[in-house]
Amino acid sequence: MKKLLSLLLSICMAASILVGCGAQKMENPGNTANDKLAETESITDEVREEKEAGEPEKVVVRMVCLGTVPSDLKLVEDAINKISVPEINVQVELEAISIANYDNQLAMDMTSGEQVDVFYATNYNSLVSNKQLLDITDYIGQYGQGLVEQTTAEWLKATSVGGRIYAVPVINGKAMTCTVAMRTDILEKYNLTPELTLGKDINDSDMQKNLEELNYVFEIVKENEPDMITLFYPVATAGFTGLINYDSLTDGNGVLMGEEGWNVVDLYETDEYYQMLELARKWYNAGYIKSDAATDKESEASYMSAGRLFASVSYSEVGLDAQYKASTGYDYTCVKIKTPLLTSSSLSGMIWGVSSTTKVPEASVKFLDLAYTNKDVANLMCYGVQDVHWILNDDGTVSYPEGIDNTNSPYPSSTYWAMPNSLVGNPLEGNPSDYNEILAENNKTAPVSRALGFTFDQSNVTTQCAAVSAVLDEYLPGFKTGSLDLEQNYSNFIEKLKAAGMDDIIAEKQKQLDAWCTENGINK
């Protein structure tokens, strides 16, 4: 039985101790806020004077928030305009919508003719299909060179169609991979040593060893902490199926497996996928996964904050331990167990774009360029106004002022990850001072899919895609959580996928991929 704490755990703990030192505390946040509000009034006057002198163009910027709209959104808007008006002669109007209603509200506003110029989105493919994203290629060439330097031309392939750019990927830690986060105090309590080694896919001996190590840890925790949930992952995520090495080719209906070849196959019929389902079933039967995991609507964060959860599976970069510490109060040991792979989907999954109905395309791209390159604008969008919503610590990280947190901040930093470029600003407290540089370097060095830039057009198989989606919705929650018996249901699952038209989708995707390879001079 393993009884010594791993070197990895020691390093994680030491890092959390180091980054916790040197935080500055604001002596009187109330007075500072009043001072900033007074300063904001002068900012507004300056903006008004600039408008009269140079007539800055107005750009409506739509962003996402968690819960209610931040009450200090206007304060942040005015602070951004203090930079954007003199630098690019653009005056922004910020609009925020709760993530729960964001996509629906954005779609309604864009079709109703309401002004929306620059916006965040996660449904890039449908926006392109519906012609709601402006082709910004030429505008970027004239007004967005800084933006290109930040994202790289390679990344922009993921948000391009036919060589034309329709959006810009959000810049954050993109080299995300399957990560297991475990409560550090529980690991210490039972002298557990998760000696995990990076692997490439489920067939690697290293990966099998990783899973055996995790099984050992979960077994001990389940036995000794029966009131805790041993393992949790949201049904909406890939679960441990994300350990498989593949490119989803936009939607996961037909994928490229492994590191070679150009044959599109059904992921759900592969041996690798079935092995992952077997793993989930094994851990469900062992009691590691909640019995109602497939239907449970309670969030992972609530279980963590209540101290009821030992381990969580997510897809993230370095720094997940600091995020969990900040949101739950518990120390977590986070271990990556798969080499990350940058695909078109991982880059186009969160984007910023310009509405095809905008009347100010030049100003919109000018603002995007500023948001992706200007440190002060990045910090404002991510965290709000300095000394009101956040303070700068001695180590260069940012934290909330004393008495303020995510729950009561008038501009919480809970959606910093959805802002254009969080890496050009300052990192959150709990991370090393060079955290953003680490993420940027990981982005540069992460393996890139051989199909980066390919985007699947579903228009010829929309009926089949809808039918397949219905089958996946029926089976995957149970399969991924292990609550659905494989022997009784897997064959029916595959048969229903075929009946729904999975083979038609794969054939169409193969046709498009072959054409894409020819267009890009790829010798298959």
Low-confidence stretches: 1-45, 47-52
Give the amount of beta strand, in percent: 5-15%
Kindly state the percentage of residues in helix. Answer: 40-55%
- Structural category: alpha+beta
What is the C-alpha radius of gyration, as a whole number of Å? Answer: 24 Å
How many strand segments?
A: 15
Oligomer: single chain
The coarse silhouette is globular
- Major sheet summary line: 5 strands, mixed
What is the terminal-to-terminal distance? 49 Å
- The residue-averaged pLDDT reads 86
Strand arrangement across the biggest beta sheet? 2-1-3-13-6
Helical element count?
Answer: 20
Gist?
With 524 residues, the protein is an alpha+beta fold. It is built from 20 helices and 15 strands.
Can you tell me about this structure?
- With 524 residues, the chain is an alpha+beta fold.
- The protein contains 20 helices and 15 strands.
- The chain has helices at 7-19, 29-54, 73-88, 102-112, 124-129, 137-143, 145-151, 153-156, 184-189, 205-224, 271-285, 300-305, 320-328, 344-348, 361-373, 375-383, 435-445, 462-481, 486-500, 502-519; strands at 57-65, 90-98, 118-121, 160-161, 164-165, 168-169, 177-183, 229-232, 246-247, 256-257, 309-316, 332-336, 351-354, 391-392, 398-399.
- The strands form five sheets. Strands 2-1-3-13-6 form a five-stranded mixed sheet. The chain has a four-stranded mixed sheet with strand order 8-11-7-12.
- Strand 9 (246-247) and strand 10 (256-257) form a beta hairpin.
- It is globular.
- Mean pLDDT is 86; it is low at 1-45 and 47-52.
